[in-house]
Amino acid sequence: MARARHEEDLNAGQDSFLDVITNIVGILIILVMVVGARVHKISLTAHQAVAPTANADLEAKVGELESTLLSAESEIDELQAQARMVGAAAEGAAGARLELATAVSAAKVELERRKQAADAAQVAFAERAAKRRELEESIQKCTLEAEAVKHRKATTSEVLAYPTPIGRTVNGEEIHFRLAGDRIAYIPLEELFELAKRNTQRHANSIASMANRIETVGPAQGFALDYVIEAKVDQARGQVLIRSREWAVRPAEPSVGEPVAEALGPSSRFRRAIAGVKPDTTITLWCYPDSFAAYRQVREELHRLGIPTAGRPLPEGAPIGGSTEGSKSVVQ
Is there a contact between 146 and 254 (Cβ–Cβ < 8 Å)? Predict the structure, then answer.
C-alpha cells in the first residue's frame, strides 16, 4: 500500500506542474492576440478619420497612435520575453520531467530489489526456524534417551579375549571333528588308519602286483576311510614299498554326530572325546559353510578350556581328506 500511494503522489505532482505551465502559455497567447487586435483597430480608425478632420486633431491622434503603438510594441516585447521565458521554463520542465521519470524508474527498480531481498530474508528466516525446531526436537529426544539410560539398570556382558593370532603348524597329537548341519562328530582318524594298515598288510602280496589301488575300511564311529595305495618295487633290494598316497573320510550317514547345543552340555559324546587331552594336543575342526556359527561356539568353549584349536573350512560337498602333498593344520 505504501508503494502505490508513493507512485500516486509523484504522478499528481507532475500533472499539477504541467497544468500550470500550460495555463501560463495560454494566457500569453491570448494577450498577444488582444494586443494585435487593438493595434489593427487603431490603424483602421486612423485611416478613416484622416480626410475630413483638421490637421491638429489628426496630429494629436497620430501622436496618441504612436504612443499607443510604442506601448503596444513594448507590451509585445515584454510578451515575447515572457514567451521565451515560458519556453525555457517548459524546456526545463521537460528535462525535469525526464529526470523525474528516470528517478521514478530507478526507485521502482530499487523497490523491487528490496522487495525480493525482503522475500529472500523471510524464506531464510522460515528455513532457520524450521531447522531450529528440528534441532530442539532432536535435543529433547536425546535428553529423554539420556534420562532413560541414566535410570536403566546396568548390565554386564562377558567378552572373550582370544590370544594374538600367530599361527603355528601342528606337529603333535591331533584330534579331528566334523561340523556340518549344526552337528559335530568325532572323526576317528587314528582308528581308521590302523584299520587301513592292517588291511594293507593282509593283502600285501596282491597289492605288490598293482601300481595303484583304492581300498576302503570302516565304518568306525560313523565314518569310513577311502585311501589310495601306492606300491613301488625295489628290485635291487628285493623289497616292495607300500604307502597311502591319498585318503578321504566320508560319513556313513548324513546326520552323523550330535547337535552342537547338546555337544556343549556336560555329558555329551563331544565332552567324552576331549576329556583328558594332553596340553600339546590340537583339536582340528573341519567346518562346512552351514555351520560357521556353530564353529564359533565350539571354538569359544575350547578356548575357555585352554585347548589349542585349528580350523579347516570346507566348501559345500567337499570331502575331508589328505595326501602326501597336502598341508598340515595351523593352530593359533
Answer: no
Q: Which residue has the higher pLDDT, 158 or 164?
A: 158
**Domain boundaries, given as residue ranges, for the chain:** 2-149, 168-331
How does 21-45 read in b/e, with b if 16+ C-beta sit within 10 Å?
Answer: beebbeebeebbeebeeebeeeeee
Please tell me whether residue 252 adopts helix, strand or coil conformation: coil
Residue range 166-220, pLDDT digits in tens:
445 556 688 899 999 899 999 998 888 888 888 877 766 665 555 566 788 878 8
Q: Which three cell numbers stand for residue 177?
A: 571333528
At position 303, the amino acid (one-letter code) is H
- CA–CA separation, 209 and 70 (whole Å): 167
Total-model pTM: 0.47
How do 212-220 and 258-259 pair as beta strands? unpaired
Number of helical (H) and strand (E) elements in the chain, helices listed first: 7, 11
Would you say 227 and 246 are in contact if contact means Cβ atoms under 8 Å apart? yes
The per-residue b/e assignment along 87-109, b for 16 or more CB within 10 angstroms, e otherwise, is eebeeebeeeeeeeeeeeeeeee
**Is residue 311 within 8 Å of residue 174, measured between CB atoms?**
no
Q: Are 220 and 195 in contact (CB under 8 A)?
A: yes
Task: Compute the distance between CA of residue 27 and CA of residue 34 in angstroms, rounded to an integer.
Answer: 11
Strands 282-287 and 239-251: unpaired
C-alpha cell at 112: 523491487
Instruction: Identify whether the C-beta of residue 162 lies closer than 8 Å to the C-beta of residue 303.
Output: yes
User: Look-up: residue for cell 527498480?
Assistant: 109
Q: Give the H/E segment covering residue 209.
A: none
